[in-house]
Design brief:
This protein has helices spanning 2-20, 29-46, 53-69, 74-87. The chain is an all-alpha fold. Helix 1 (2-20) runs antiparallel to helix 4 (74-87).
Amino acid sequence: RFRTCFDKVMDPIMTFLREECSRSSYYSETSLFSLSLCLLDAILRDSTHVTTDIHVERFFIFSLTFVLKAILNSDEQKRCSDVLKNYVSVLPDDDREISVFDY
């Protein structure tokens, strides 16, 4: 299930970064996703209570957004959040119009 989430999210996010974001600060897409996976690995090693695929997927989305927040401006964060919401079904239920970067 994590693999499905990863596969669903990566192409749209990479396309978003390439086509809709300014490159005001240099970044390597490979490095961004490598950092996200390293953060996910650290979280999972420290989280022995994680027992479901949904937990792992939520930690993956958290790791990805944590890294992306460092390079995206607020407008890009909002648009990136909209992209993620189209592809991810494991986000917390929340009726407010907030960004995934606000969780």
